[in-house]
Amino acid sequence: MKESYVRDLKPGSSVTTTFLIRTKERKTARNGSAYLDLELQDSTGTIKAKLWDCDSFDPAFEVDDVVRVSAGVEVYQGTPQLSLRKIAKCREQEIALSDYLPHGSQDPDVLFESLLKRIKEMPPGPLQALLLKVFEDPEIVRKYKLAPAAMSYHHAYIGGLIEHVSSLVQLGDGICDHYPFLDRELILTSLLLHDLGKIEELNFSRAFTYSTRGQLVGHISMGIEMVRDKMRLVPDFPSELWDRLEHVILSHHGKLEFGSPKEPMFMEALAVNYLDDLDSKIEAMRQQYEADKDRPGNWTARNRALGRELLKPPSEPVSHAAPAKSSSSKV
Amino acid sequence: MKESYVRDLKPGSSVTTTFLIRTKERKTARNGSAYLDLELQDSTGTIKAKLWDCDSFDPAFEVDDVVRVSAGVEVYQGTPQLSLRKIAKCREQEIALSDYLPHGSQDPDVLFESLLKRIKEMPPGPLQALLLKVFEDPEIVRKYKLAPAAMSYHHAYIGGLIEHVSSLVQLGDGICDHYPFLDRELILTSLLLHDLGKIEELNFSRAFTYSTRGQLVGHISMGIEMVRDKMRLVPDFPSELWDRLEHVILSHHGKLEFGSPKEPMFMEALAVNYLDDLDSKIEAMRQQYEADKDRPGNWTARNRALGRELLKPPSEPVSHAAPAKSSSSKV
Amino acid sequence: MKESYVRDLKPGSSVTTTFLIRTKERKTARNGSAYLDLELQDSTGTIKAKLWDCDSFDPAFEVDDVVRVSAGVEVYQGTPQLSLRKIAKCREQEIALSDYLPHGSQDPDVLFESLLKRIKEMPPGPLQALLLKVFEDPEIVRKYKLAPAAMSYHHAYIGGLIEHVSSLVQLGDGICDHYPFLDRELILTSLLLHDLGKIEELNFSRAFTYSTRGQLVGHISMGIEMVRDKMRLVPDFPSELWDRLEHVILSHHGKLEFGSPKEPMFMEALAVNYLDDLDSKIEAMRQQYEADKDRPGNWTARNRALGRELLKPPSEPVSHAAPAKSSSSKV
Amino acid sequence: MKESYVRDLKPGSSVTTTFLIRTKERKTARNGSAYLDLELQDSTGTIKAKLWDCDSFDPAFEVDDVVRVSAGVEVYQGTPQLSLRKIAKCREQEIALSDYLPHGSQDPDVLFESLLKRIKEMPPGPLQALLLKVFEDPEIVRKYKLAPAAMSYHHAYIGGLIEHVSSLVQLGDGICDHYPFLDRELILTSLLLHDLGKIEELNFSRAFTYSTRGQLVGHISMGIEMVRDKMRLVPDFPSELWDRLEHVILSHHGKLEFGSPKEPMFMEALAVNYLDDLDSKIEAMRQQYEADKDRPGNWTARNRALGRELLKPPSEPVSHAAPAKSSSSKV
Amino acid sequence: MKESYVRDLKPGSSVTTTFLIRTKERKTARNGSAYLDLELQDSTGTIKAKLWDCDSFDPAFEVDDVVRVSAGVEVYQGTPQLSLRKIAKCREQEIALSDYLPHGSQDPDVLFESLLKRIKEMPPGPLQALLLKVFEDPEIVRKYKLAPAAMSYHHAYIGGLIEHVSSLVQLGDGICDHYPFLDRELILTSLLLHDLGKIEELNFSRAFTYSTRGQLVGHISMGIEMVRDKMRLVPDFPSELWDRLEHVILSHHGKLEFGSPKEPMFMEALAVNYLDDLDSKIEAMRQQYEADKDRPGNWTARNRALGRELLKPPSEPVSHAAPAKSSSSKV
Amino acid sequence: MKESYVRDLKPGSSVTTTFLIRTKERKTARNGSAYLDLELQDSTGTIKAKLWDCDSFDPAFEVDDVVRVSAGVEVYQGTPQLSLRKIAKCREQEIALSDYLPHGSQDPDVLFESLLKRIKEMPPGPLQALLLKVFEDPEIVRKYKLAPAAMSYHHAYIGGLIEHVSSLVQLGDGICDHYPFLDRELILTSLLLHDLGKIEELNFSRAFTYSTRGQLVGHISMGIEMVRDKMRLVPDFPSELWDRLEHVILSHHGKLEFGSPKEPMFMEALAVNYLDDLDSKIEAMRQQYEADKDRPGNWTARNRALGRELLKPPSEPVSHAAPAKSSSSKV
Hints:
The structure is a homohexamer.
Chain A: E1 14-28, E2 34-42, E3 45-51, E4 66-76, E5 79-89, H1 108-121, H2 126-135, H3 138-146, H4 160-178, H5 184-193, H6 198-201, E6 202-203, E7 209-210, H7 212-217, H8 219-231, H9 239-250, H10 267-291, E8 299-303, E9 308-311
Parallel strand pairs in A: 3-5
Antiparallel strand pairs in A: 1-2, 1-4, 2-3, 4-5, 6-7, 8-9
C-alpha cells in the first residue's frame, strides 16, 4: 500500500513512497553533469522531482512506470519539489493503479449498475435494444467506467465520464417530466451515448492524453461510428430514428465553432445540448471552488472553461445570511 | 360577443364582426381616389383590409380602436383580405379586450395563485420578504399577469410572461433537487424577478410595441430598478445577497453581446441563464411547429430565434415508430 | 424528343412541349375561382406558369412529374411566364430525364473512365484497393456520375460532382509534382472521396433538394461512413493511414465554422482543403460570368458564394489589350 | 516626511524609508526556513522585497499597512528588489496617504471647483438641479475627487476620474459649439455623470482593486442607480429627459461587447461615447509614451488598451523637422 | 429654368418639365407591346416613369441624358410615378446640372476659400507646401468642390466632401487647442487630404456611381498615390513626416475590417480616425432625422450606417422641456 | 572563415569563433557588479551569452556588429549559453555576412536567372515591359535576392522571398495550364510583384526587423508605389490592365482582416491569393517539421501560423506503410 501522497508532503521532511512517472527529461547542469527532471503523480496531485548526477544511476524506468523513491522535500520558487536520493521501478504486481490516477467520489460500478437498471426500465424498442448492445459489450463497459469526461475542463478524473452521464440521465428524466412533448427515450439514449467516443479519444490507462486518432478525428465522429456499428446489430432499426439519433450526437456541442458539424434542429437535440453544457459548466465551477478553497478573498483564479473569475459561494447560503450591519450605501 | 374570428374567414363569403385596428394608412388609388389600407387583428391572427373611396366615409377611428365591420372576404396574391363595406368604432363598454389580443392556453390567475403559493412555502427570510413586496403590489400583479414574455420571439401573447416564469420555477426547483449545493431561494427569486422589467418595456394593452423607455433603457436595467425599490423596503436586506441577486438578473442573458452587461460569475447565475434560454427556445420551437403544422414536408420555415429550419416532430414518437421497410442503405 | 426549351421561349408566341413540374400550388383568384400556380423546369432553366380555372381540368400530375403543355408565352413584371391551355402527364417511357435537368458540358461517362484509369495507374496498396472497392460498386458509380457538387453554389448540375473531382485530381497531381514531399496517393484518394457523401446528401433524380438525412447529418459525416465501410473490406488497411484519410475528409472545409469538425493538421489535409476551395470558387465565378454575360456594364450582380460583385473578364485578355488612348490620370 | 521613493532607489545602496504593503506571502526557502515575499508601493511605483528568516521577526503588519524598512537594494533577474533588514508598521497618524498612492499632475480640488463653476453657469432647469444634488453631496464629492478613472487602462491614479471628466467637459463644450443642434446641457450632464459608478466600483483608499459589488454589478449599473436616486430628489424631473439621460449613461461604452446594454440611439449619446473613448485612448497613449520614454528605438512596448505598439512622438514636431538628408527612396 | 421638381409633384396632376435619366430598361407588357421603364432624377429626389408602346417613339436618349417630358402623375402601390406622354432629349447648352443633382446647403466656393485661407495661415514648412501643391492644382480643386463624401452613407450630395472636410478642419483645430501636445499641422493636413481619393473613386458628373478603378483600388490607396505625387514636388520633404502622413491617411478608417490596411499607431492618427468617424455618423443621423421628419412616432426607420433605429430629437431641447405631468412610475 | 557554429556547440567545451550581436543589455548582478547580457547569432541559430564584470572590459561593440569571442559552453535552465572570457569587434573586411544570417537551401542567383528567363519567354507587351523595368533595376535586384519572405512566419531567411516567388511562378504556370481561361501573364506578373514591398518593409542586412516605414505603411502599399513608378515608365501602359494589376496586389491577402484593403474581385486575383497562402502555409509546416524533428512523439509544438499542433509525417509515406498488426478496433 502506498505510504504517502503528494497532497500531504511537508517541506523539510523526508519521504519514501511510490509515484507514477508523468514526464521525464534528461538535462545538463551548470557544472556539466547530467540530471533527470521528472514530474511525479499520484491520485492526489503532481510534484516536480530532480535526480542529480543521474549518470551514476541506472534509471531503468520510463514515462507511465510506477517507481519507488526516497527523497527530501524541498521548496523551489515557492513550490514543493523532491530531491531524489533513490529511485527504482516497481514490479507491476505491486501496483494498484487507482493510487496513481485522480478519481471521483462515486463508485463507477455502482453508477453503471444504476444506468443499466434505468435502461432496462425503458419501454422495449429499438433504442433500448441499441443501448443493451452497447452496454452489454464488455470492452466498452470496461472503458466506459474508467474514462474521464474531458482532459482537464471538467470531470477530468477516472470515472468522470460515467459520473457526468449519470447526472445527465437524471436531468434528462426531469426535463422530460417537465416538457411532456419531448421524446424521453431519444433524449435518454442520446445522453447515454453522446460522449461514447471519449473512451477512444483519450488515453487514460496511465496519464491522460489524447490518442492520435482522437486528435485527428475527435470523439464526436468516433462515437458516431461506434453507435452506427451497434445500430446495425439491431434488426430493423427505424431509418428516421437512426438519423435523429445521429443528429443529436453530432450537434451536442451546439455550435459549429465548438466542433459540432451540425447545429440542433429539433427539440430533443436542443435539450441534450443545453443539459450537457450546463452539467459540464456546473462541474467546472465546482472544481474551481475546490481548487481555490484556501485562496484568500471572495474570488477564485480565472476559470479557463468560463474565461473569468468566479465569486465563491458564501460559507452559509446567502439567502439565510444574517443581515449586514450597515447597508447604508443601498438606501 | 364577437361573431367571427380571423382564423375562420372563408374566401368568397361575407362577414360582419369586430376587430382591433393595428395599422391604418390613407393612400391614393390609380384613379386618384383615396382609400384606407388597414391591418385588423383579433386573438386568432391578423388580416389586411381595404376601404375604397374612403373620403365619402367619416373614418372616425384610430390605431388601437376596436371597430365593427361588414366586408367581403377576397384573396389577393394568395392571401385572404377584406373589402370593407361598412366600418364604425365600437363603444368601449362593448369590448372584451381578450377577444382582440393573442393569449396563451393557461389562465394567468391560476398561474399567479400557484406562484404565490410557492413563494409562501419558501423559508422566511429576506428573499421571501422581497418577493412578497413585489407580488403583493397590485399594480405589478395586474401587469405581471398580462405581459407577454417577448415581442415576437417566444411567449408573445397576453399572459406569456407568467407562463414562462411558471415553467421556469418548476425547472428551478428540479435543478436544485439535482444539484443540492445550489441556493434554491436565490434561484427561485431570480427566476421570478429576472424579466420583471418586461412589464414596462413593452406596451401590451392593445397591439404589442416597445415603449420609448423600454427601447432606450431595456428590461434588464428597468427590472433592476424595480427590484432595488422593493429591496429597500425589506429591513436589513443583507448586502452580499443584494449584490448577488442584482448580478443574476443583470447576467441572465449570458453574454455581453446579448445585452447583459455582466456574464454569470457563480453557479446560480449560470443556472438561471441556462434555464431561461432553454425554456425560451423550446417554446419558440413549439410555436414554429404549430405555425407550420399544415406546411408540406418534414421541415418548418426558417425559425428566426434559432436562425435555421427545424425538423418537425414525427406524428408518433420516433422511438416507438414501426421499423422502416428498407434500411438497406444503412447496412 | 423535346420540341422547345425554356431558354428559347419568345413572348407573344405559342408553344407545345414538355417540362418537369418543380412546384405546384392551388390558389384562389380574386373572382373566387381556383387556379394552379406552377414552376416548370427543363435543362435550360425554369419558368412560371398559370393554369386558370383549374377545377374544370383533372390536374392528375404532381411535383417531379413530366408534363406536356400547350401555352401562350406572356410577360409578367418583366419576366416571361406561361398561360396554360392544356396540360397532361407524360408516360415515363417517353421521358429522357437529361432533357429536364441542368447538366454540365462534359460527359460523365468519359470523366469516370478517366478517373478509373488514373486509379489503376496508382501503385498497388491499401489506398488503390480502397478506391477500387468504392468505384467498382455499381450503385455508387451510378450516383457518382449524376450527382451535382452542390445545391446552388457551384457545379450545381447533373454531373457536377464528377466534373469537380476530375478537375481536382488533375490539380492534385500537379501539386504533388510541385511539392515532392507530399503523399500523392493520400491526396488523390482524398480528392476522389472527399465529397462522396454528396451522393446521399442531395436528392437529384428530379429537382435538387437536400435529403432529410443530408440536412440532419451532412455529407462529411455521411461520406466518412461510406469510406469506413469500404476500408473495412480492404484486408489489413493500415491503422495510421486510416486515421489520416478520415482526417483529410473531415477537415476538408478548412474551418470549424464551415462545418468541418477538425481543422487540417498536416500538409496533405491542408492541400486538399485549398484545392477544393479554389476549384469551387473559380467555378462559382465562371458561372456568375456566364449568368451575367448580357448584363450591361463591367460588373456582375453580387455573387453569393463570394459575397461581392465581380469584375467581368475583358473581351480579350487584358495583358494584350491595346493601350488606353489617354492614361493621363496615371502620370 | 517620506525619505526615499521607489523611482530613485540605486542598486548597491542602502535605504531607510516607508512603503505601503501591496502583497504579502509567507514562503519556505530551499533550506527549510521561512521568508516573506512582499510587494511594496509608494506614489512613484512598486518594488519586490524579501524578508529572510522571517520567523525570528514579529511581522505584525498586513496588506495595506504602511511600514518603515531598512534594506539593501539588490538586483534580481535585471530588476531591483529590496533585501529587508528591519521592518515595522507605522502609526496611522504618521502617514500622508498621498505619499503611497500614484496621483496625477493636477490638483483635484482645483478641478472640482472649476466643474462646479461650470455647472452653476448652466441655465437653471432639471439637469442643473440634478447636478447640484450630486455635486453638493459631500460623500460623493469626497470620493469623486479621489477616484481613479480605471484600474490600469487610463488615468489609473488618485484624481484620475476628475481629470478625465474635466477634460471631457471642455471637449463637450467644444463639440456643442461646433454642432449647434446638439443639446449642450444633456451632453455636459452626461459627461459629468457617466462614470459616477466608478467611485463605488473601485476600492482606492489603499491599493486599487475592484469591490465585490463592482465586479458583480459594474460601474454603469451602479452609476445609474446613484443618478436615479438624485433625479428623484428633483421635483418634476421631466420623464423624457430622464429616459434620455439614462440612455446616454447606459450606452456610453458604445457597443454591447464593451459592456453597454444599449448602443447609442441619438446624437448626444453618440457624441458622449466618442469623446469618452477618444479621451481615454489619448491618455492611454500619453502614459505609454511616458512609461517608455527611456526605451531605445522609435517604438513603445505593446499598449494593452490599443493592442499594438505605438510610434513615439518625434523629439520636435515632425511638421517642423529639418528635411531628411536623403529622401532618394521616395523620388 | 426647370419648371417643377420631384419633391413637388401632386398625384392626379399633369406636368411638363426636365429630368436626368438615371436608369432605362425596355420591357414587354402582357399584351406583347414594348414599354420603357425609367427612373428620373432631379436635385430633390427620384421618381419612376413608364413610357408605354415605346416602339412608336424614337427614344433617342440614354442614361445620364437630360430629357424634357410631359406626363401624368399617378400612384402605383402607394408611390407616385409618371405616365409619360412625350419625352425628348434636351440640348446640352440648356442644362444647369445643379438642377439635377442633390447638393448641400453650403456654397462649395465659399467653403473652399475658407479652407485655402486656413492653409495659408499655417506656419511655412513642408506640410503647407504640400497643401498648396494640392489645392492650387485646378483639376483637383474643380473636383474637390463637387465631390460627394460618400455614395449614400453621409454627405451624399454635390459638395458633400468639402462640407465634411470643412467641418473636420474646425474640429481638428479645436482638438489641438485641447490637447496641446498634438501636432496641429499634421492633423490639419491629414484631415484635408484623408479623402482626396474620393474625387476619383466616385463618378459624380451625373448619377453617383463607383468608378471601376474606384471599386478595384479604393479611395485610400488612390488618395495615397495623389498625395505621394504632390509630396515629390516639395523639395526635401522630410522622410519621417512623409511616413507619418501616409500612415494617418492609410489608417483613417481605424480598423482592418473597415478597409484600412494599418490601424492608428500614434496620437494624430487616432484623433483623425475619431473625428472623421464622429462627423460622418453625426451627419448620417442628421440626414435620417430629415428624411423621417414626417414619419409618425418618436423613432426613425432603421439607419443603415448605424444599424439601428434612432430616437428623434424632441421638438424643443429636452433639457428645457416642461416637467412631465405624472412621473409617478419613477418615484 | 568561421570556426564553429551555434548548432554544433557542446556543453562543457570551450570555443573561439565569431558571431553577430543580436541584442545587448547591461545589467547589475546580485553582488552589485555590472555584466552584459547578449544574444549572439550565426547562420545556424542564436545563443545567449554573459560577459561578467563587464566594466573591466572595453565593450566597444554594438548590436549588429560581428565579434570574435572565447567562451565556455554552459547550460542554464536546460539551454546552452556562453560564458564569455574574451570578446572583440571584428574588422568589416573579415566578415562574410552569409555566415551570420540564416539562409535557404537554394542559390538566389540561380533562382533569379531562372525567373528572368521566364519573364523573357513571356509574349511581348506591357506586362513583360513592366517586369523588365523592375527586374533590370540593379538596386531592386540586389535586395530582391536577399530579402526574407517574412519576419518569422515562413521563408524567414536570406533569399526566402525569391524562393517563395520561384515556387509561386511554377504553381502559377500550372494553374494556368489547368484553367485555360485565366490570364497567364497577369497571374505571373502579379506573383512576381505581389511582395515587392517586402524589400523595403523589412531590414535584413543584419538582424531581421521591420523598418519604421514598413510598420507604418506596410509592404502592400509600399509595393504598389514601386510598381506604379515602374508602370509609368512603360509607354502607353493600358489603363484597365493597370487597375487590374494593382487590384491583384492589393487583394493578395484575401481578406480585409488580413490587411488587404480590397478582397479579390476577379479570377486572377483569387488564384494569386490562394497560391500565395498555400505556398506560405506549406512552407510554414515544413519548417515546423524540421524544427521539431527531434521532439518525441507524433506531434509538433503549436505552429503559430496555423494556431495548432501538427501531425508529423510518417517516416515512410503512409500510403505504403506496412499494415497495422491489429486493426481490430476498426472492424
